[in-house]
Design goal:
Blueprint (H helix, E strand, L loop, with lengths): L1 E2 L4 E2 L14 E6 L5 E5 L4 E5 L2 E4 L11 E6 L5 E5 L4 E5 L2 E3 L11 E7 L2 E6 L2 E5 L5 E4 L10 E6 L5 E5 L2 E6 L2 E3 L12 E6 L5 E5 L3 E5 L5 E5 L8 E6 L5 E5 L4 E4 L5 E3 L10 E6 L5 E5 L4 E5 L2 E4 L11 E6 L5 E5 L2 E7 L5 E6 L10 E6 L5 E5 L4 E5 L2 E5 L10 E6 L5 E5 L4 E5 L2 E5 L10 E6 L5 E5 L4 E5 L2 E5 L12 E4 L4 E6 L2 E6 H9 L8 E3 L18 E2 L5 E5 L2 E5 L14 E7 L2 E3 L13 E7 L10 E7 L6 E4 L3 E5 L4 E10 L8 E8 L7 H17 L5 H34 L9 H18 L3 E8 L2 H8 L1 H18 L6 E4 L4 E7 L3 H17 L15 E8 L6 H18 L5 E5 L1
Parallel strand pairs: 65-66
Antiparallel strand pairs: 1-2, 3-4, 4-5, 5-6, 7-8, 8-9, 9-10, 11-12, 12-13, 13-14, 15-16, 16-17, 17-18, 19-20, 20-21, 21-22, 23-24, 24-25, 26-53, 27-28, 28-29, 29-30, 31-32, 32-33, 33-34, 35-36, 36-37, 37-38, 39-40, 40-41, 41-42, 43-44, 44-45, 45-46, 47-48, 48-49, 49-50, 51-52, 52-53, 54-55, ...
Helix pairs in contact: 5-6
């Protein structure tokens, strides 16, 4: 199996004749970059320069059952067998010396130091010196009475010997037996590896996988994830990942977590955390969903003492005011912990009985005047000033009463983010609204942050990131490369990076790039994304007034649906990709061509696919690609994670394809070039042009000998030939256009055609001063459909929906396209709003009436669709993104209403 970080490629005796047996026992990549493959019954196979060769069938070696392969410092390769002796390959020549045979023995492992080559076998430990003299060692301690499984020299030169009787060490010329070593050495050991951090990894039968430090102290044991009886090999790659190979549990990758998670095992009293806060003394507090408040004490979370008398167990917000009082916002009101004039600790609980607008408290904030602002769920805003509580709600301009966050900027403006009314700014005793009508991308605001340039950044739930600068809103969304349009929290670290939490994980983007996109100087971001692979136990983060902090120690914390995570932003969490991309295959019309056959290609009516990859074994999901044809493309094509480049209708010539990759947004200049040549079509060749010229001269000559009628007849014949060639060329172009614009599954227009048609329709409607609109169609609960019925059924469902949409849209101005996996888009123009609303409702009804079974759908167990419609009364040059955003917002509203319906929005 060959793995590039994303996919495995399988080589076996069926597809690779040089592999004579499918049980692969050993792999060795030698100093020349060649791969040696040992099998159990098929002998030795090598992989050199893209070609497999079996050496047993060539009578180079008689060994067929291979247990060990090793390359020594001189470049000699040693092959150990199962009872068939020892073979070496020196300078490309196979040698089998009878003096090296260990009769009837199985040779499993090798190791080398200045004393020679060490050989592990079923009958003991042997050493082969520089003169090929073989000596058995360790007999006095019983090494000749136990099966030796593995050998490993550590960084200090100590030889580790894994046997069925435990671990032996040869240290400073002296043998140490299992009884002389700690308990870890008492078990049968099949694999030993010292990693780049000098830790030892042992695969034992009874204790599972054990990690030791350099002083042989056990760091951890893992007998749950790994059964030591099943582990055959431990390997560290050049990215410091550890791989554990097993014959029962497959392949496992181990690496240190980039994030530090804290949850129930670390003392949290509930799994889901809602808020996180740092007191002035550095104490970290975590508000939990049903577990009250915990504080961090020497790496372990403990419950807040009961004397604090929290009003509720769900803690949504926390605050330490300028006088040292603690405030906790819960589902049952506010708990205030303070000291009276005598220094005695007092507890006060504030509820609706004391003047609060609601008992569910989502946000707490102290302004510079020492006032405490209290934001509630479905109540509005309260201000606590020296024990007096004032209320702010709809009468004061706060038209949405669910308050998510409260923030005061450096200009002393108080801002309030709400769940449906957008953003509000205090002016005296009233509040002024900033919503989607004023340029905000979404009216659900979760996060507020002011940067050093005094720009206000607004994180929304569905509208991405907004920037309010000089009174103008700018948006940065997923279409610009933002990881998610849901932003729970914005935190800027000391290096100028924005860390943002969402429902799908945590991302990091440099602020300079965000400003460039918001200013229109740049179109795409290159975010770094973090998730389960980085140590998070759940990628879903929780939003709210205290949804993340940058502590005084420079650490970043986020609450999640499974505990909290700690991040050190000063650590380079993503190691820059240092490997050039590789070209995997070149296909013409779906047929893979050998690399040595890529000259004089005929592609008049064909399509070219170039597959590439970049080996990234640590964070393959972060690898991004871009490519271009040198001397043809002016700009790079950003392929994102796609690993295939597509070309069609390329003119003749020699082409240089260039691809580069990154995994952290830094295009490091490591590029790979690839060449191919397209031969000219017949009408581009010199002989064809010469033929045409000869015909013209011949016609001129014949003018002197034939009558005018003959000349006219000849001209007609020439015109017929030209028309025939034109028709053939047009037919070929039509076929090529169909391939380029047709969706392979449904037969309707694809995403590429959607983009072209949308631009054309916008321009046409703009000339006629008409309206243009877009329906975004989403199959409800399609992931559950696929999971329960399988992908073939899912494909059939997608084709059925495509047929219904096509049959329902008969107007010449309606274009049905496939927009994504389970999404469709319908472009229309010059339609009245009420007719479009009815049209969308009819389409939903037709799909419902088809009664396509969907066992996982809550909507009567059948397949349904949800439609979002966006209409602009007048088109502009840049209306495409606006209409898509409008339709997307409508689709979101339709889903929020319960799906199986449509919502129309117009602008």
């Amino acid at each position: 199996m060959r793995f590039d970080g994303v996919q495995f490629r399988h080589f076996n005796s069926q597809n690779t004749p040089a592999i004579k047996h499918n049980m692969i026992t050993r792999l060795l990549s030698d100093s020349q970059g060649d791969l040696w493959i040992g099998t159990s019954g098929g002998g030795l196979t090598s992989y050199k320069q893209g070609s497999f060769n079996n050496h047993t069938s060539l009578n180079e070696t008689a060994i067929t059952r291979i247990l060990g392969i090793f390359e020594d410092k001189s470049g000699t390769i040693w092959i150990g067998s199962d009872g068939e002796g020892l073979t070496k390959i020196k300078n490309g020549v196979f040698e089998s010396d009878s003096n090296l045979l260990i009769a009837g023995n199985s040779i499993r492992s090798f190791a080398e130091n200045t004393q020679g080559l060490w050989i592990a076998s079923e009958k003991g430990l042997f050493r082969l010196n520089q003169n090929d003299q073989l000596t058995q060692v360790g007999q006095s301690i019983g090494l000749d009475q136990t099966i030796i499984r593995t050998l490993h020299f550590d960084h200090q030169g100590t030889l580790w010997i894994g046997t069925d009787a435990g671990i032996y060490l040869l240290k400073n010329g002296q043998f140490l037996t299992p009884s002389q070593l700690p308990d870890f050495a008492q078990h049968t050991t099949r694999a030993i590896r010292q990693d780049s951090h000098s830790n030892y990894w042992l695969a034992t039968e009874k204790a599972g996988l054990i990690r030791l430090n350099k002083d042989y102290q056990v760091i951890e044991k893992t007998d749950v994830l790994f059964d030591g009886k099943a582990i055959n090999t431990i390997f560290e790659d050049d990215e410091n990942n550890l791989w554990v190979g097993s014959h029962l549990f497959g392949l496992s990758q181990l690496r240190d977590s980039l994030f530090t998670p804290y949850g129930l095992p670390e003392g949290l009293t509930a799994q889901s955390s809602r808020s996180i806060y740092e007191k002035n003394d550095g104490t970290l507090l975590v508000g939990l969903e049903g577990g009250g408040v915990n504080y961090l004490d020497n790496g372990v979370f403990k419950s807040l003492p009961e004397r604090y008398g929290l009003a509720g167990k769900k803690v949504y917000s926390m605050l330490e005011d300028s006088k040292g009082s603690l405030w906790f916002g819960t589902e049952n009101g506010v708990t205030r912990v303070f000291k009276d004039h005598l220094g005695q600790e007092k507890i006060e609980v504030l509820t609706t009985a004391d003047g609060l607008l609601s008992d569910v408290i989502l946000a707490l904030f102290e302004n510079r005047d020492g006032d405490i602002w209290i934001g509630s769920f479905s109540g509005g805003l309260n201000r606590w000033r020296k024990g007096e509580i004032n209320a702010y709600s709809e009468a004061q301009g706060l038209t949405d009463t669910i308050v998510n966050i409260i923030f005061q900027d450096r200009q002393s403006n108080l801002w309030v983010g709400t769940r449906g009314g957008g953003l509000f700014r205090q002016e005296g005793e009233h509040f002024v609204a900033y919503s989607t009508q004023h340029g905000l991308s979404d009216d659900l605001v979760f996060s507020l942050y002011q940067d050093k340039s005094d720009a206000l950044w607004i994180g929304t739930y569905g509208g991405g990131l907004n920037r309010l600068k000089n009174g103008k809103f700018s948006q940065v969304r997923q279409s610009n490369g933002l990881f998610d349009d849901v932003i729970h929290r914005i935190i800027e670290d000391h290096n100028g990076y924005f860390w943002m939490s969402s429902n799908r994980g945590i991302s990091k983007v440099d602020k300079a790039s965000l400003d460039a996109v918001a200013d229109g100087r740049k179109s795409q971001l290159e975010p770094v994304v973090y998730g389960l692979a980085d140590g998070m136990r759940n990628v879903e983060c929780n939003g709210g007034a205290n949804a993340g902090i940058l502590t005084s120690a420079g650490k970043i914390w986020f609450p999640t649906a499974n505990g909290v995570v700690e991040i050190n932003p000063q650590v380079n969490h993503v190691q820059q990709l240092q490997k050039k991309p590789i070209i995997e295959s070149f296909s013409l019309n779906g047929q893979i061509l050998p690399f040595n056959q890529l000259t004089n290609l005929e592609v008049d009516s064909g399509s070219i696919e170039i597959k590439y990859a970049a080996t990234n074994l640590t964070r393959p999901e972060n690898t991004r690609f871009r490519y271009k044809l040198v001397n043809s493309d002016k700009e790079w094509t950003n392929a994102d994670t796609r690993r295939t480049a597509y070309y069609s209708a390329l003119p003749s010539g020699r082409y240089q394809f260039r691809v580069t990759a990154t995994n952290n947004g830094d295009w490091n200049g490591l590029t790979t070039d690839f060449f191919f040549t397209i031969k000219p079509s017949y009408y581009e060749t010199w002989w064809f042009r010469l033929l045409v010229l000869s015909l013209v001269l011949l016609l001129g000559y014949l003018l002197h000998y034939f009558r005018l009628l003959r000349v006219e007849h000849r001209n007609q014949e020439l015109q017929r030939l030209i028309r025939k060639r034109t028709i053939e060329l047009e037919s070929a172009n039509l076929q090529l256009a169909k391939i380029a614009t047709e969706d392979g599954l449904t037969g309707i227009l694809n995403r590429r055609a959607f983009n072209d048609i949308f631009v054309t329709e916008c321009r046409r409607v703009q000339r006629k001063h008409g309206s243009i609109g877009l329906m975004l169609v989403d199959i409800d609960y399609f992931k559950q459909y696929n999971d329960s019925l399988g992908h073939p059924k899912g494909d059939s469902c997608i084709k059925a929906i495509a047929d219904i949409l096509t049959n329902s849209c008969n107007r010449a101005s309606e274009f049905v396209t496939r927009y994504g996996g389970d999404e469709f888009a319908i472009i229309f123009s010059d339609s009245e709003l009420d007719k479009i609303e009815q049209h969308a409702a009819n389409i939903c009804e037709k799909v419902f009436e088809q009664n396509i079974p969907h066992p996982e759908s809550p909507i009567e167990g059948r397949v349904t669709i949800t439609i979002g419609v966006g209409i602009m009364s007048s088109a502009t040059d840049s209306c495409m993104d606006a209409i898509i955003s409008l339709a997307d917002d409508a689709l979101y509203q339709a889903k929020k209403k319960g799906r199986n319906q449509s919502v129309c929005l117009s602008a």
